[in-house]
Specification:
With 551 residues, the protein is mainly beta. It is 10% helix and 44% strand. The strands form six sheets. It has a 16-stranded antiparallel barrel. The longest helix has 22 residues.
Amino acid sequence: MSVLKSALLASAAAFIAAGAAHAADLPVNKAVPVEYVRVCGAYGAGFFYIPGTDTCLRIGGRARFEGGYQPSYTRQSGTNSGDTSGYQGRLRINLDARTQTAYGTLRAFVRLDAGARTGYSGVGTSGTQQRIGQAFPGLGIDQFGRDQQYVNVDKAFIQFAGLTAGRASSFFDFYAHDFEFAGATLGSDVFSTNLLAYTATFGNGLSATLSIEDPVFRRTPIFSPTNNPAGVTVNASVANFAQSNSPAPVFIGYTNGIPTRYSQVDVIQRERMPDFVGVLRVDQAWGTAQLSAAAHELNVGDVANGAGTGTGSNVSIPHTNSVYGWAVQGGLKISTPFIAPGDSLYLQGAYGNGAQMYTGYCAYTGCYTQSTQTIQGQKFNQYFADATLNPFTGQLETSTSFTTTISYLHYWTPEWRSAFFGSYGEQSFSNGARLAQGAIFSLENPNGTNAFGSNAVGVPGTRFYQLSQALRDTYQFVAGGSIIWSPVKDVDIGVEAFYTQIGLKSGRAIDLDKSPTAYSNISGINNGTFAVATATKDSISQVRFRVQRDF
């Protein structure tokens, strides 16, 4: 029996050895190695290595619903106003890629924002975003002015060895409405511009930045009496077209020392010099302080027609020189954990000369336009002009503006927090700016007619001139607060309410809500046959509700 068992085992061993030798001669299909996603812990939570590279990537984003209510004081025939509610759905996609190099971290960051907005101007359709081509209106009868799709390449920049290049937030900005829904307070907040900047760090949280930035996103129009206040004209078919010429008048002829002939200068600005921004900043455990400064070029074209309109001997009008506006801003953020963990206070102030968007005076009412109505049934418009063209000299005269803002964030509990904010600002035009525009108005309108609409300044010394809203010095006041509940991490459910008041620094203006036809009755106002309502200020309140998830 043992002999048989030994023989069988020997035979089996020989068979296996032979099979193995034969198999070694055959091709073998090996499994392809699997590239597993690996966690990258070098830059914080959420980063992973892109398979096959040494680059770490974080994918994030946001979903948001927002609805709001704002009273409307008018449903006048022929106006596109009267809405009291508005809604929007928004999305955001973030991609953050980082690679460690011998020169430090190489970073590329991109962010895409998009949304669908409807209703009143405060929540629904943003004129500011439409004016710079980032929002597109619905063109239906019941949709135009009430429906808007919004797409924005909000961020697309590279950071490397102190360099920042691409589309990013302006380095000038500081508070930038960090604690607000609507961004209603007055202050600079240009969250998307094209720039090239270098930041030097000196230790102990001290840094300095020099930034060259795209001037287009900081331009407020130079005043023109023929400027379209809405910023667009509506084609009868399907398209909207912005105006391509914005003439401002200048005197070119005199008779016995009295101006009797005028021509026009196109004051739409050209892309020439960039804006130059310098920043000094310190970041420490107690908070942050920043000092910002900016230089901003203003330029116009030449006189359009040497012959002009009117009588008298022509004079040589000098070329309108480009001028530089400028702005300075100081900001302070103080952490106050001794009140509650996470609490902080912002203080900010800015002053500008020929650089209104750097002070952010237009933040609530709307930027990139000469004048606008955000309050439906607004009594008079504020004017936002970096400069006026003096019709006697043909040269630019800059305006001034300043804003101050305070904002405080308080955590009642880790899940409940509130923000309280307020701001005040003013814009003033150069001495004699209205008087000079009024002088040429009388020459352009010898029969007392008005081709300028609400931009008309009027003839100096008349009642209409005293009541015209154009180029009036104004102020703005904003106050508000919010309550936000975060039941789980990165989910916010909150309500914000705020009050805004606009007013004239002196005098009275025609009440456009109660006297909507006043600007077509200039002669009647002047001779007292047309009674007109007047006002010194106007105000509005707004409430917003938001649900937001970040990931």
